[in-house]
């Protein structure tokens, strides 16, 4: 059987970091990857605003998945107790959410970020072009970047979600409402959510048109 180099690198890191009771320390690599990407995004935001007099980023948030949440996802996917396999297979242990004023900004930020030499684009999920059935819209990028530690370089995956303010509002409220129904949303309720998502998309289009008029 051929050994996957990425999985082997993570396994070696685990030998040093992910010993009993030290899984949170292992997650430091994901925290560092987020910090690297956050710095890149802030630089892009400030420089683009300086050159074009328009900031394409409204705000940025981030999170590293909690050990309990990782364990539950590993269990659901049948990966057993092998945390190294989990770290290698899962795409969303580290996550960044970038909220932009306009849909055009979403794609502009995605292009600028993935054009950087040390940002490797692994996968793209374009839920703006093809929204989910419930109306969810966002652009998801799975990227991998190098994290420079004191004695080695680790390549770490991060999920970057890019969306507009309207998309983010819809997603935040939909999450709260759907959580109440424990993933069993009534059909009529789901229809209303999908209609609200279309309204949000229409708002994005109208605001983009106004922006173009001002420019």
TrEMBL record:
Its EC number is 2.7.6.5. It comes from the Bacteria. Keywords: Kinase, Transferase. Gene3D superfamilies: Beta Polymerase, domain 2 (3.30.460.10), Nucleotidyltransferase (1.10.287.860). Residues 62-185 form the RelA/SpoT domain. GO terms for biological process: guanosine tetraphosphate metabolic process. One of its GO terms (molecular function) is kinase activity. SMART domains: RelA_SpoT. This is GTP pyrophosphokinase (EC). It comes from Amycolatopsis camponoti.
């Amino acid at each position: 059987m051929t050994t996957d180099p990425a999985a082997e690198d993570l396994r070696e890191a685990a030998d040093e970091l992910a010993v009993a009771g030290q899984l949170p320390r292992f997650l430091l690599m994901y925290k560092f990857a987020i910090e690297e990407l956050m710095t890149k995004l802030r630089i892009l935001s400030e420089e683009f605003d300086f050159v074009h007099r328009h900031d394409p980023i409204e705000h940025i948030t981030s999170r590293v998945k909690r050990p309990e949440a990782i364990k539950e996802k590993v269990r659901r996917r049948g990966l057993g107790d092998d945390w190294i396999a989990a770290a290698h297979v899962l795409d969303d242990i580290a996550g960044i959410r970038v909220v932009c004023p306009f849909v055009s900004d979403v794609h502009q930020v995605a292009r600028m970020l993935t054009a950087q030499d040390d940002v490797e684009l692994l996968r793209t999920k374009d839920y703006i072009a093809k929204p989910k059935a419930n109306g969810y819209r966002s652009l998801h990028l799975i990227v991998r970047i190098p994290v420079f530690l004191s004695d080695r370089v680790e390549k770490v995956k991060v999920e970057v979600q890019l969306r507009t303010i309207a998309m983010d509002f819809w997603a935040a409220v939909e999450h709260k409402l759907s959580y109440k129904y424990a993933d069993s949303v009534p059909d009529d309720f789901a229809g209303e959510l999908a209609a609200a998502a279309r309204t949000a998309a229409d708002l994005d289009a109208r605001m983009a048109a106004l922006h173009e008029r001002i420019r």
